[in-house]
Every structure is written in structure tokens, then in C-alpha cells.
Amino acid sequence: MLELKNLSCGYGAFEAVHDLSLALRPGSITGLLGANGAGKSSTLMCVAGHVSQKSGSMLFDGEDIGALDPMERVRRGIAISPEGRRLFKDLTVEDNLRVGGLIQAVTNYKDDRDRVISLFPRLGERLTSLAGNLSGGEQQMLAIGRALMTRPRLIMIDELSLGLMPKVIDLCYRALLKLRDEGMTVLLVEQNTERVLKIADDVCVLESGRVVWQGSAEAARNDSQLTAAYLGMH
Ligand code: ATP
Q1: FRET label pair with 169: which of 47, 156, 159, 161, CA 20 to 30 Å apart?
Q2: Is any atom of ligand 1 closer than 6 Å to the C-beta of 46?
Q3: Does residue 36 have its Cβ closer than 6 Å to ligand 1?
Q4: How far is the centre of ligand 1, averaged over its atoms, from the C-alpha of 41 (Å)?
Q5: Residue 192: CB within 6 Å of ligand 1?
Q6: Which phi and psi angles does 4 have, rounded to 5°?
Q7: Binding site membership of 17 for ligand 1 (Cβ less than 6 Å)
Q8: Measuring from atom 31 of ligand 1, which residue has the nearest CA?
Q9: Residue 92: beta bridge partners?
Q10: 193 C-alpha vs ligand 1 centroid, how far in Å?
Q11: Phi and psi dihedrals of 200, rounded to 5?
């Protein structure tokens, strides 16, 4: 699966993430946690190929993906639901899904779309609506759905629960558990620490671009110093 070794990345001369080593276990959910500006989104965007890697390496199935363009990384099975969702707001739900599916054969489209709809039935009812007219929750489902249309083996989701109602967050989290049960690997960036600790298998905590804690979610839950100091839980 994905293995980051001493990865540093950033913008121009600015290094946002320093010396990050992280290995994802296949078919697991890893939570990437930390305060605002800790480097979580930069990490995801670097894996996706949108933020420049400064040093270290990124292996996917043992192969170095560092020199591959973003499209090729998607072809290899890496998908992202980015921060802010970045939907095509003037396109319909169906067309947003179609864009995600462009990388696949046209003949796969219906099956893949129906698979997304079975995960998020609400999208099936809104296929002809413009993405910009959807509620925040529906937009999040669509961003995840669009990523799933690429048939990924690794899905990276940035700020899944930001601004959503608890009921919708529950629904999205149930979908993630279902994906994991089907064998998908999930890398989840969240501010909502308590929820992540409930469903994740592994956790990595960043502070100012550096790893300050790494281990199983169970160990994280039981580490009161960690939860109080870095995760804002008491
Ligand atoms: P948040 O939850 O606020 O998005 P984060 O943990 O995802 O936080 P990043 O967005 O990765 O953190 O930001 C890490 C650092 O990189 C911050 O200091 C941020 O200001 C900086 N940064 C992020 N995007 C850019 C950019 N496009 N250009 C320059 N610096 C950036």
C-alpha cells in the first residue's frame, strides 16, 4: 500500500511537512490528525501530486510514485476528495460523477455510478441537480463519490465532517466503514478527533509539519496525555 518515507513537502522555499514516515496497512482506515496548519492537507496533496515533494520518498505497492503526474497516480489507484470538495458546481451531480469516471472505460460508467448511489442513495435522487445547489452533506457525498468513480484502492478524504450535521457525518462514516470492509484503504484528515478515534485503525498526529504521535487508534484513545495535549479531548 502507501508508504511515505522521510517525506518533506511544501510550497516554494517553504516546507510545510518535514520528515514524515507513515505506512498505511491495506484495508485499514488511518486518521491524520492535528491542529490547523499542521500539514495534513499538504500531505494528502503531495501524495496526489499537487504539492511538491522536497525530499524522502512515496511508495505505492512498492513503486516510487514521486515522479508520476497526478493523473498517473489516479490510474494507479490513488484518489482524493480534497479540502473544500472542489466540485464542478455548474455541472449536474451525474456529470460530476462522469468526470470522476473519465479515467475508466465508458462501459464501466453505469456500474460505477450505481455503486456510488448504493453507498449514498441521496445522490441517486439528485442526479440532475447542479452540484452547486446541493446541501453541504450532499456535496461531501458527491466529492467522495466522484473520487470512487476512479475505482481507487486508496481514497484520501480531507475534512470529511467539516460543517456537516451529525446525522450526515454518521452516514458518511458508515460509508467509509463499508468501503474498508470491501478492502479499500482510507486516509482520513479530520479536525473531528473523537469521531476519527472511534472508527480509525491507525492514527498519525502532526504538529507544525512533524509527526508527534503514531500508533493504533486504540492506543491513542488510551493515551490521556496525547488526547489532552494534541487532540483537544479531556
Ligand atoms: P487546515 O486544517 O487548516 O487545512 P492542515 O493541517 O491541513 O490545516 P496545511 O493546509 O497542510 O495544514 O498547511 C500547512 C502549512 O502550509 C501552513 O503553514 C499553511 O499556511 C501552509 N500552506 C498551505 N497551503 C499553502 C499554499 N498554497 N502556499 C503556501 N503555503 C501554504
Answers
A1: 47
A2: no
A3: yes
A4: 7
A5: no
A6: -100, 130
A7: no
A8: 11
A9: 130
A10: 19
A11: -75, 155
Model pTM?
Answer: 0.93
Three-state SS for 207? strand
pLDDT in tens, 139-158: 999 999 999 999 999 999 99
pLDDT band at 193 (very low <50, low <70, confident <90, very high): confident
Count of positions (residues) in the chain? 234
Mean of pLDDT over the chain = 93
The grid cell for 84 is: 473544500
Q: Which three cell numbers stand for residue 199?
A: 472508527
pLDDT digits (tens, 9 = 90+) for 78-114: 999 998 889 999 999 999 999 988 888 788 889 999 9
Q: Is residue 34 lining ligand 1, measured as CB closer than 6 Å?
A: yes
Residue 12, pLDDT > 70, answer yes
Answer yes or no: are the C-beta atoms of 24 and 3 closer than 8 Å.
yes
One-letter amino acid of 101 = G
Please work out whether the CB of residue 39 comes within 6 Å of at least one atom of ligand 1: yes
